[in-house]
Write a structure and sequence with these properties.
Layout (H helix, E strand, L loop, with lengths): L1 E5 L5 E4 L9 E3 L3 H9 L2 H6 L9 H22 L3 E3 L1 H10 L2 E6 L5 H18 L4 E3 L4 H8 L6 E5 L2 H17 L5
Helix pairs in contact: 3-6, 3-7, 4-5
Length: about 180
């Protein structure tokens, strides 16, 4: 769910952190449902006032959700839960510590596929769910990690890992339609 509030200038604002003051309205976290609410005037009706709604509202929401995922990855990295680079990720997979495999959207299929197959096989043998994240391009992964050309990363289990996955799932939900 995404919360929306009215800003001081009567502009509709997405309150992704759910901390802004004022009466809020909630919309299921899919892009198409937000667009439908805008087209049908549901925000104005629910908030009982005329509103200014930016034409790029959904693009802004997606940008904010991507930034939130980046921040989650950065926090997990600072907590020491992230390994980067093909060789290090492959070694971590062999050690069995990996909870989430992260690969850049723009990763070459051969390397990304090799790591994913290995990770899925290990997870299957251990009877655990394999979580593969490929929502971010290399530039965003590099920004989050503070490195250059980050393509592959692996995240170990922990509180920051759970937080990261909640953020990723929220972004995935927004990028899918409500009928998927």
């Amino acid at each position: 769910m995404i919360r929306f509030v009215v800003g001081p200038d009567d502009t509709l604002v997405a309150d992704l952190a759910q901390r802004l003051p004022g009466r809020g309205v909630w919309v299921d976290g899919h892009r198409d449902l937000v667009l439908t609410a805008v087209k049908k005037g549901l925000f104005q009706r629910s908030l009982k006032r005329p509103l200014k709604i930016a034409p790029d509202l959904t693009e802004t929401i997606e940008r904010l959700l991507v930034a939130d995922v980046r921040q989650g990855l950065s926090l997990a990295n600072k907590a020491g839960l992230v390994a980067t680079g093909f060789g290090k990720v492959e070694a971590e997979l062999g050690g069995g510590r990996v909870q989430v495999l992260i690969r850049a959207q723009d990763a070459r299929p051969d390397g990304a596929g090799k790591l994913a197959r290995k990770f899925l096989a290990i997870a299957r043998d251990r009877g655990v769910a394999a979580q593969v994240v490929d929502e971010l391009p290399s530039a965003d992964l590099s920004l989050a990690i503070g490195g250059e050309n980050v393509i592959h990363a692996a995240m170990a289990a922990g509180g920051q890992c759970r937080s990261f996955m909640r953020r990723v799932l929220r972004l995935r939900r927004f990028r899918t339609t409500s009928t998927d």
